[in-house]
Amino acid sequence: MIGSGLMGSALARAFAAVGHEVAVWNRTPGKARAVGGGTVAMENLIEAVSGRELVVVSLSNYAACSEVFSSEGVTPALAGKTLVQLTSGSPADAREALEWAKANGVDYLDAAILAYPGFVATEYATVFYAGSRPVFDRHLETLQAIARNSIYVDERIGSAATLDCAILEAYYGGSLAFLHAAAMCKAEGLDPKTFFSHKNSFLGLLSVTADAAQGMIESNDFSGDQCSLDTHVAAIEHIVRLSRDARINTRFPKELLDNYKRALSAGLGGKELPAVFRTLVQD
Ligand code: NAP
Hints:
By secondary structure, the protein is α/β, with parallel strands linked by helices. The chain is built from 13 helices and seven strands. The chain folds into two domains: 6-156, NAD(P)-binding Rossmann-like Domain (Rossmann fold, 3-Layer(aba) Sandwich), CATH 3.40.50; 163-279, Orthogonal Bundle (N-(1-d-carboxylethyl)-l-norvaline Dehydrogenase, domain 2), CATH 1.10.1040.10. Helix 11 packs antiparallel against helix 12 (251-265). The two termini are 41 Å apart. NADP nicotinamide-adenine-dinucleotide phosphate (NAP) binds at residues 3-8, 26-28, 31, 58-61, 64, 67-68, 87-88, 113, 116-117.
């Protein structure tokens, strides 16, 4: 296990917990020694990977990985092994890493973990994998130590990172939206607890809209008889006005309004909400 940060430490302990012999290496050796859980801290990375079949990496970013792999003797020591990249990155990072792996005789899977370290190895952890299916199948049982929900996405090496970025965008965007919503409630003297107690209202709406959007994007037909974009835009204008009147940050609802209004300018005012998609792909 290369990397003993918050995530790397949790991953290493999860592999060790099911009986694997796990060597851990970290740039700052004290953190590798602190992992515990039956793992063995190694100060020398080449020795740490020698004799291992599977090398799992979790560092801050791909630049850090390149730095580590370019240290003298490290890349040759990885030849013939399977490297599972659990560092978060973009699809382009994954493609570049695959080129490096191919050039150096390393079997490579690009992966993305959807869990906080505290949820590693629980039913709430999901890991997406991209790359060679036979390599994934060969290591699946071992990899299930960190997440029973280990999902093979696609042979295209960037697919796990793409799916991760897509899910994270929905997560971060949705989280910012509900935090702004809580701020609106507080500013208007409504206890945010009341808003959060109705979380199933907005989660349910999101779920229904996501299902509708999927079909509409597929058919490229955004017509419907539920609620026009014109009506949605009027609702967003209320949110901007409330925020301005309550003197809280208006940047988020204004950005929302701007995006939705662009769809009106494109002549989509009579269509259903997912029609905004058309203006996004054209940007
Ligand atoms: P972290 O606690 O900050 O750990 C970062 C790790 O990267 C440390 O081991 C650090 O080594 C190492 N590192 C950074 N730059 C380096 C360099 N130039 N050379 C060698 N090692 C370097 O971060 P983390 O939370 O474990 O996250 C690790 C990866 O998991 C990230 O890609 C993150 O996006 C992903 N991830 C994290 C979570 C989460 O909830 N934490 C969830 C999903 C995915 P030192 O100890 O020497 O600084």
